[in-house]
Amino acid sequence: MWSLAWKNVRRGRGRSLLTGAAVAAVVALMMIMYGFSGAVVNGMFQNMTRSTGHLILRVKNADKIREFERGLIQDAPALQERLARALPGADVEAMLEVPALLAGEKRSRGVLLYGLEPGGRLMKEFVTKKLTAGGPPQDDGDWSAALGRALARALKVKVGDGVYAFVPNTSGIGAAAFTVSGLVALPESTMEARTAVITLAAAQELAAPNAASRIVIFLPGLVSPTQQGRLEQARSKLAPLVPAGFELLTWRQAEPAMAAILDMMTPLLLIYAVIFFVLAGLLVVNTVYLGLVERIREFGVIIALGADRWRIMRLVIIESLLLVLSGAAVGAALGGLAVWRMSHGFSLPGPLARQYAEFGLPVVMYASITPAQVALVFAFALLTALASALWPAWLAGRLEPVEAMRHVA
User: Fold this and answer.
1) Where would you tag: which of 98, 141, 194, 261 has the fewest CB atoms within 10 A of its CB?
2) CA 150, CA 192: separation in Å to the nearest integer?
3) What does the alpha-carbon distance between residue 285 and residue 290 come to, in Å, rounded to a whole number?
4) Which tens digit of pLDDT belongs to each residue from 54-92?
């Protein structure tokens, strides 16, 4: 029966090639879309967690606290050391965010001073990815600060100039002079206009000795939001160490808006898959139906010779399966080749890359696709083949032998 079905598919060669090509295009397109979505999701996840961490320890409901002192983790080094011992291999860093007034020679702006550990991952992220001029902030001798480029323009200062930070009503010294060590480019222009990076020691002496606003934890090898199991396992290890009045958040809880955006990708791709495969299915129905019409007399002879109607229906369904799955195999090969090529790194065109960087999309992305996604694409193709064959198969099963043999196409 399979050989007869294949012979029937090849009989309408031009029509079958067109339909198979359409199925191949849909399968290849879906695999490319899955690969591209993997690149977008993983890239946005990695971009975000480089600056937020995978786990964040902070005062409970710190985002709702307006008083600076109430939102601080006092004696942060001791707590930081306990967390690091509980998760060997993880990077545990303290960070102090200080609202301040930053003034140049003639202008001043309200800013957020980010106090980062000089050798930590957060500082390295600023230096390697965001620093566009000068060098990182230092606290050897004179203090220095790296300013957002928009902030530097607003203050009319450049690398090497002096700026003054004022932080009144805190437990630190409250005011200090800094030298502009470098300029930082940030994806969001509004953030660039209010960001200054200094060392953690300088921020603590300026505003809150021995304190931090959050402790950020980076887990090794966590590169995708699908690795939720590892995240929860680490969180459960640290839970007994969290003091009363504090909370340990995952990146999802710290950035719910970004998590919602990433979670939307899967249902969105499913909708696209349904639309594309429905369109391909219409072509398959047309091809199988026209092949049936051209062979009505043959079906009549076969039925008259004793073939049962279920056998005829199975023959039509097998033809549809051969047509769709052969096209799907070609499409999977082409799509897999494209995803493999994109997995080595690709970028959107220049203007688009800069525009989408505002939303956290990396400039260089790496496509990735999971076996489950490949299986899902083939499941859609199989479902399309079966659904497209139902109506022609039902018509073939209703043929009367005498009338069928009299049919003139």
Assistant:
1) 141
2) 6
3) 8
4) 999 999 988 888 888 899 999 999 999 999 999 998 999
List the domain boundaries for the chain.
2-46+262-406, 55-218
HEC string of 35-85 equals HHHHHHHHHHHHHHHHHHCCEEEEECCHHHCCCCHHHCECCHHHHHHHHHH
Question: Which element (helix H / strand E) includes 214?
Answer: strand 214-218
Long-range contacts, 272-280 (Cβ 8 Å, 24+):
272/30, 272/33, 273/30, 273/376, 273/377, 273/380, 274/380, 276/26, 276/29, 276/30, 277/26, 277/380, 277/381, 277/383, 277/384, 278/384, 279/22, 279/26, 280/22, 280/23, 280/26, 280/384
Here the tokens at position 4 are: 């007869």
Structure letter (DSSP) for residue 147: E
Q: The tokens 């139902």 sit on which residue? A: 390
Under a CB-based contact definition with an 8 Å cutoff, are residues 36 and 343 in contact? no
Q: What distances in angstroms separate CA 68 from CA 100, 172, 197, 213, 247, one per listed residue?
A: 11, 12, 18, 9, 17
- The string of pLDDT tens digits covering residues 110-144 is 999 999 999 888 888 877 778 888 988 987 778 99
Whether pTM exceeds 0.70: yes
83 touches 286 (CB < 8 A): no
Please, are residues 327 and 335 in contact by the beta-carbon 8 Å criterion? no
Q: Which residue do the tokens 């004022």 mark? A: 166
Whether the per-residue pLDDT at 13 is higher than 80: the answer is no
Q: Report helix, strand or coil for 219.
A: coil
State the burial class of residue 58 (Cβ atoms within 10 Å of its Cβ: 0-12, 13-18, 19+). Answer: buried
Which two tokens mark 280?
A: 């391909």
**238 CB neighbour count, 10 Å cutoff:** 18
- Among residues 156, 106, 146, the alpha carbon closest in space to that of 123 is found at 146
The strand pair at 108-116 and 195-199 is best described as parallel
Contacts for 319 with CB less than 8 Å, ≥ 6 apart: 5, 8, 9, 288, 291, 389
Question: Dihedrals φ, ψ of 399, to 5°?
Answer: -65, 135
Token pair 């600060």 is found at 145
